Amino acid sequence: MEGAEIIQVANIRDQRGDLFVAEYPKELPFVVRRVYYICNVENSKTIRGFHAHKKLHQVMICLGGSCDIVLDDGSKREIVKLDNPGKALYLKPGLWREMQNFSVNSTLVVFASEEYDESDYIRDYDEFKRYREEMR
Ligand code: TYD
Q1: What tens digit of pLDDT does each residue of 46-60 get?
Q2: Rounded Cα distance, 18 and 64, in Å
Q3: Buried-state track 12-29, b at ≥16 Cβ within 10 A, e below 16
Q4: Order of strands, sheet of 58-64, starting from the edge strand that comes earlier in the sequence
Q5: Which of 30, 48, 81, 113 could lock onto 99 through a cystine, CB 3.0 to 4.6 A?
Q6: How many whole angstroms separate alpha carbon 8 and alpha carbon 21?
Q7: Residue 132 bridge partners (DSSP)
Q8: Is the CB–ligand 1 distance for residue 85 below 6 Å?
Q9: Are 110 and 35 in contact (CB under 8 A)?
Q10: Nearest atom in ligand 1 to 99's CA
């Protein structure tokens, strides 16, 4: 989907294990200003997200376990499964996302291009649809 990209994180593997590295600008497309992570999702029916961003760029990686990211561009939906620490999902602004199907002990880490700003969020789906219409 336009605005979403899978990025392969570099893996330096040796007998001691895996070392993954994402560095700006090679694998990370922006300079990170904020990191947050979601873990201890105890109910497998939990769905998070339900929002889009106007300016924020994000990279999501499921460091352990797995989860699904539902993406919506206002006219179609796509599900991206994040299930290994080498697979990063880069989301540009303007996509509606829902995070679901968290496995037990999963950790979803999110790298963000900006500090937290509630005014950058679109949390109403109808408003998001109108926003996308206006973008065309
Ligand atoms: P919320 O947007 O509901 O999380 P999700 O995208 O997983 O559905 O965020 C939960 C709460 O945490 C909400 O009150 C906003 C707050 N929050 C911050 O204070 N800083 C942050 O960087 C983030 C991502 C959320």
Answers
A1: 999 999 999 999 999
A2: 13
A3: eeeeeeeebebeeeebbe
A4: 4-8, 87-91, 58-64, 107-112, 34-38
A5: 48
A6: 10
A7: none
A8: no
A9: yes
A10: 7
- Between the two ends of the chain, the Cα-to-Cα distance in Å is 16
Closest ligand 1 atom to Cα of 116:
22
pTM exceeding the 0.70 threshold for the entire prediction: yes
Specify the residue with its C-alpha closest to ligand 1, atom 23: 116
Q: pLDDT digit string (tens) for 10-42?
A: 999 999 999 999 999 999 999 999 999 999 999
Establish whether residue 38 lines the binding site of ligand 1, counting it when its CB lies within 6 angstroms of any ligand atom. yes
Q: What are the φ and ψ backbone dihedral angles of 70, each rounded to 5 degrees?
A: -90, 125
Q: Whose CA is nearest to atom 20 of ligand 1?
A: 116
